[in-house]
């Protein structure tokens, strides 16, 4: 039973990570109806930002600043830089294609994903960059309940994930900005006519979504300890799945989907074998699409004629 | 209709304005090139296809080496894939991101029934049996993959197929290693044997691929002008209207999927036989992106465009970008061509070029005066270009870090260049050009494997934004609803 | 109205809690032209969408030539012999004019892909027939869609010609019943007059029954055998044009409770 609960904790932690990536992905889909294939690569960039922040302050073993401050800088910088990158991508590559055939921005997104991945390979090399998290966050600290350990990194990820998700939900539901985002998502032209600054709203959505991916990247670095240029692709795939399973465009759906996939993955890895975890995620996706094409929390769209 | 007065130019009552405008706008190249253009417009599709086939057939007679031949074979395989992908993406308008998995299934399928992999003695089916069998099986698989997404909009199809592609690689890597070979793949695949002839040499595979590609293009062209082709395009244009016009939309979509898969499988069988082996990594995402880049560059929706685009992409990717000399010519040549095409009037062009040259010499002189090591590296390009650039471009002794920062700055500058006004563009161009050269000489030319991937990604982004119909396609109109 | 081609029987449709159509009865007889009128949002296009299988009715039945077609997929409905046009033009814009029309014969032809590729006899015969049908249908519009336009892309057509092409495309499905959604929308008076004649000619020369949605009362008046008025998804009047147009409920639906206040404005 202890093993079960340990896997549950692990699953929830990775699930929170996937949920954050899926959240940004889903937000962007909401306002632009665009599958941003480059989203996973933004997560990868975030993970690199975190790594270089650690390097900048002396490396994992000889940090020149206190750990909490380091974490704040890592998250803030990753959110800011990756958010900015997301806005730049939107401005440069997606905005000109807003009225193009639907397939055009999708192919552009694939191109951007590939470009970002290659650029990371060029700039940062093919080798794994290691965070060495245990050197500055004690792996054995944390909470132990019976024989189940939740270490401090997991606590950090879970708490931050929860705060960000709830915060975003509040933002979208209760602020003027959130109202504008929902208006643009519902009908861009009508929103524009009613005085919503559509370009600004879309850019801001990209910023928020990309920043979430950047934060998730830093969390992944802390959690899994290593970064390389190809981690974005698989993470992106899982985020798509999480978003689709939960109901694409729905924020609670993305959270639910992310947690579900994290848990499923964790249990399959724990009880069966890690080789099948990706195939399982795929199977889950197919199953949900067959049973409930609009996702668990999504709403069926009315076909307009 | 009076015969004695000449018809006035331009639109007039009773004639069609569109035809008049198009005829007026149509420009031909000067002199004999224009005549050639007109002649090619008058000629039907099959003389052109035959001419292209003849050109491909005589190419090896000019003494291609084994390397060039291999590049040609790879290019033909990718062209075949692009032509097949065109059915799905270009005609039926479905975004299939698992297309390479069908290619892989074809290759693995052929390898399994043409090697010692299964059973004690292995299975060695004759090619005239194995190839159609594999194609049919993979077409069936295509139906299966398309099935869950048949009720769904295009976006979901993209996700499902993307996953399918990823699952294929996972599957071949991990499942049943005794049969599929895991990461070590399957080796010792039989050569193709048809009509008593065994294809063993690269040259024979080159010719086989040319024949297969030409036949496939012909078949698809005939299909395009039939009821099936019309139904595909109708579904792409407007699924609901198509359904109201008696077209069973889902079945037609699935059919496109299956046909695309069958062509991919055909390419896969030839690929496996030519390579004598298959590995999971042969069918990973980079190949998919490559096929898409070819299709997009040539123009989705046109068979000739898909084929040409893929050939161009592959010859550049696989052939030219490997040698520092040729890739240098390509890089600087493309920059010059773009400037020539985009920068008008010529005075502005001359100004920009002169400013770039002057800027380079100035920077080089300053850098050399400050520190010897700042210019110690020398350009990475070889041959004529290296000589020309030696005193112009600054290449520090240890160039990696500077080159990386240069790359980031270059991308930022390029993004800025697209956004700013034309006046600022003129001012920003010389530093951008110089920076491009700097990054090329310090980093990009040194890392051809990464550079060519960057190029493929850039092709997709730039083409979609600048010319979505591709180099050879005709512009499509989208209904504003 | 001896033997109705189309019969709607207590047809209802709701989206969530919203009732788009309620208990609608409607019949179209052989070679009859029925007009469907009503203010915007009355549910006229929704009627078309239910008949053609885009929406499935919540209750009630749709019968075509005696057979229930409620819930059938759109392409099946079309193959049974119901052709339609769309209010917001939905042409295959990047296909040529004649291909637009030829594409609509898909369900009534049978050649398999390999027959088309090998140009086997059946494929060649069908292709000839389809081409002839397409040319015949386009010739129906006289000079408007004459031969030299056939190879042009559909997007190059003018607005009025696009409307004509929509009708031609619907005709190519060999319909017994034609559903025309605002065929005269956006046309000038001369073109509108032409549409009026066209609708009558469609019935007389091609023998189709027609259900037409139209806002232009001149068109409605001069071509329809019968007029049905809808408001909020409910049938409020039915009969000859003069009777329906003067019906108090119709006047109220169009002009509000106190039409006298508006009558000066014309």
Describe this structure in words.
The complex is a heterotrimer of chains A (305), B (481) and C (266). Chain A is mainly alpha-helical. In chain A, 71% of the residues lie in helices and 4% in strands. The model of chain A has no long low-confidence stretch (mean pLDDT 85). By secondary structure, chain B is mostly helical. In chain B, 69% of the residues lie in helices and 2% in strands. Chain B is globular and about 70 Å long. Helices cover 37% and strands 22% of the residues of chain C. Chain C has 10 helices and 10 strands. The two termini of chain C are 36 Å apart. The chains are: A mainly alpha (305), B mainly alpha (481), C alpha/beta (266). Chains in contact: A-B, A-C, B-C. The interface between A and B is large, with 51 and 56 residues.
Please provide the count of β strands of chain B.
Answer: 6
Termini separation of chain B = 41 Å
* Number of E-state strands of chain A: 4
Question: What proportion strand of chain B?
Answer: under 5%
Shape summary of chain B:
globular
Task: Summarize the amount of helix of chain B as a percent range.
Answer: 55-70%
What is the chains' assembly state?
heterotrimer
**What about the largest sheet of chain B?**
2 strands, antiparallel
Average pLDDT confidence of chain B is 83
Top CATH class of the largest domain in chain B: Mainly Alpha
State the distance separating the first and last CA atoms of chain A.
Answer: 54 Å
What general outline of chain A do the C-alpha atoms trace?
Answer: globular
Number of helices of chain B: 20
Portion of residues in beta strands of chain A equals under 5%
CATH topology type of the largest domain in chain B? ABC transporter involved in vitamin B12 uptake, BtuC
CATH fold node name of chain A: ABC transporter involved in vitamin B12 uptake, BtuC
């Amino acid at each position: 039973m202890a093993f079960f609960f340990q896997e549950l904790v692990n699953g929830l932690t990775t699930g929170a990570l996937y949920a954050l990536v899926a959240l940004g992905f889903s937000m962007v889909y909401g306002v632009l109806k665009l599958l941003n294939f480059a989203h996973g690569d933004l997560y990868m960039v975030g993970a690199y930002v975190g790594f270089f922040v650690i390097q900048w302050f002396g490396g994992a073993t000889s940090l020149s600043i206190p750990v909490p401050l380091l974490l704040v800088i890592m998250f803030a910088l990753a959110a800011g830089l990756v958010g900015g990158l997301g806005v730049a991508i939107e401005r440069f590559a997606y905005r000109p294609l807003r009225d193009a055939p639907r397939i055009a921005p999708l192919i552009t997104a694939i191109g951007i994903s590939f470009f970002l991945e290659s650029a990371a390979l060029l700039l940062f090399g093919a080798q794994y960059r290691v965070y060495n998290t245990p050197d500055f966050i004690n792996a054995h600290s944390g909470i132990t309940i019976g024989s189940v350990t939740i270490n401090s990194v997991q606590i950090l990820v879970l708490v931050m994930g929860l705060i960000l998700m709830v915060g975003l939900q509040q933002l979208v539901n209760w602020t003027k900005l959130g109202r504008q985002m929902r208006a643009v998502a519902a009908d861009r032209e009508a929103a524009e006519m009613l005085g919503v600054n559509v370009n600004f709203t879309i850019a801001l959505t990209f910023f928020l979504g990309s920043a979430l991916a950047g934060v998730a990247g830093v969390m992944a670095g802390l959690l899994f300890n290593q970064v390389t240029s190809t981690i974005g692709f698989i993470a992106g795939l899982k985020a798509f799945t999480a978003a689709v399973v939960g109901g694409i465009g729905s924020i609670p759906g993305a959270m639910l989907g992310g947690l579900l996939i994290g848990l499923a993955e964790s249990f399959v890895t724990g009880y069966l074998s890690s080789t099948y975890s990706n195939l399982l995620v795929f199977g889950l996706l197919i199953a949900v699409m067959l049973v409930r094409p609009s996702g668990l929390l999504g709403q069926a769209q009315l076909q307009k004629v | 209709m009076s015969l004695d007065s000449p018809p006035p130019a331009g639109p007039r009552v009773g004639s069609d304005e569109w035809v008049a405008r198009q005829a007026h706008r149509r420009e031909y190249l000067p002199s004999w090139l224009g005549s050639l253009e007109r002649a090619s417009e008058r000629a039907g599709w099959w003389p052109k296809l035959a001419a292209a086939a003849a050109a491909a057939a005589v190419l090896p007679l000019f003494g291609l080496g084994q390397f060039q031949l291999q590049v040609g074979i790879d290019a033909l395989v990718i062209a075949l894939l692009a032509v097949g992908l065109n059915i799905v993406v270009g005609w039926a308008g479905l975004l299939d991101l698992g297309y390479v998995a069908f290619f892989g299934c074809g290759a693995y399928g052929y390898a399994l029934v043409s090697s010692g992999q299964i059973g004690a003695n292995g299975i060695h089916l004759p090619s005239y049996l194995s190839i159609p069998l594999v194609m049919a099986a993979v077409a069936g698989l295509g139906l299966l993959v398309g099935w869950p997404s048949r009720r769904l909009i295009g976006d979901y199809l993209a996700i499902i197929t993307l996953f399918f592609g990823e699952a294929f690689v996972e599957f071949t890597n991990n499942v049943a290693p005794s049969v599929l070979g895991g990461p070590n793949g399957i080796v010792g695949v039989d050569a193709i044997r048809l009509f008593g002839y065994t294809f063993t040499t690269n040259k024979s595979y080159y010719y086989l691929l040319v024949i297969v590609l030409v036949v496939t293009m012909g078949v698809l062209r005939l299909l395009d002008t039939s009821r099936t082709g019309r139904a595909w395009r109708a579904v792409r244009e407007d699924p609901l209207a198509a359904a109201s016009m008696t077209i069973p939309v889902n079945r037609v979509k699935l059919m496109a999927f299956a046909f695309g898969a069958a062509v991919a499988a055909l390419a896969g069988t030839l690929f496996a036989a030519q390579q004598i082996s298959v590995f999971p990594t042969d069918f990973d995402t980079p190949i998919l992106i490559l096929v898409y880049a070819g299709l997009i560059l040539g123009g989705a929706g046109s068979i000739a465009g898909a084929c040409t685009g893929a050939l161009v992409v592959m010859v550049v990717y696989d052939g030219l970008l490997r040698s520092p000399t040729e890739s240098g010519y390509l890089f600087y040549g493309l920059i010059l061509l773009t400037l020539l095409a985009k920068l008008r009037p010529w005075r502005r062009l001359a100004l920009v070029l002169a400013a770039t040259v002057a800027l380079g010499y100035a920077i080089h002189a300053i850098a050399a005066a400050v520190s010897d090591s700042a210019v110690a590296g020398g350009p990475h390009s070889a041959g004529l270009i290296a000589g020309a650039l030696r005193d112009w471009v600054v290449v520090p002794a240890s160039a990696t870090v500077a080159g990386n920062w240069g790359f980031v700055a270059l991308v930022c500058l390029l993004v800025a260049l697209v956004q700013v006004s034309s006046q600022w563009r003129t001012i920003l161009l010389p530093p951008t050009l110089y920076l491009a050269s700097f990054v090329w000489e310090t980093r990009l030319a040194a890392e051809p494997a990464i550079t060519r991937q960057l190029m493929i990604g850039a092709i997709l982004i730039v083409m979609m934004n600048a010319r979505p119909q591709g180099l050879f396609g005709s512009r499509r109109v989208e209904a504003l609803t | 109205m001896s033997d109705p081609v189309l019969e709607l029987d207590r047809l209802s449709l709701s989206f969530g809690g919203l009732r788009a159509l309620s208990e609608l009865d409607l019949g179209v007889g052989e070679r009859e032209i029925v007009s469907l009128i009503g203010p915007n949002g009355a549910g006229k296009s929704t009627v078309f969408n239910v008949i053609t299988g885009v929406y499935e009715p919540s209750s009630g039945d749709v019968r075509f030539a005696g057979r229930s077609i409620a819930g059938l997929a759109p392409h099946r409905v079309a193959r049974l012999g119901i052709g339609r046009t769309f209010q917001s033009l939905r042409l295959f814009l990047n296909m040529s004019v004649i291909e637009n029309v030829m594409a609509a014969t898909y369900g009534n032809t049978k050649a398999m892909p390999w027959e088309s590729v090998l140009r086997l006899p059946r494929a060649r015969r069908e292709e000839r027939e389809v081409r002839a049908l397409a040319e015949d249908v386009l010739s129906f519009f006289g000079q408007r869609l004459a031969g030299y336009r056939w190879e042009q892309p559909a997007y190059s057509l003018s607005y009025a010609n696009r409307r004509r092409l929509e009708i031609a495309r619907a005709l190519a499905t060999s319909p017994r019943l034609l559903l025309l959604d605002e065929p005269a929308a956006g046309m000038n008076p001369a073109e509108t007059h032409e549409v009026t004649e066209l609708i009558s000619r469609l019935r007389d020369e091609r023998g189709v029954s027609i259900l037409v949605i139209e806002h232009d009362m001149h068109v409605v008046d001069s071509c329809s055998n019968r007029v049905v008025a809808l408001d909020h998804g409910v049938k409020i009047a039915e009969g000859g044009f003069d009777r329906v147009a003067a019906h108090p409920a119709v006047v109220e639906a169009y002009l509000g409770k106190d039409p006298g206040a508006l009558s000066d404005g014309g």
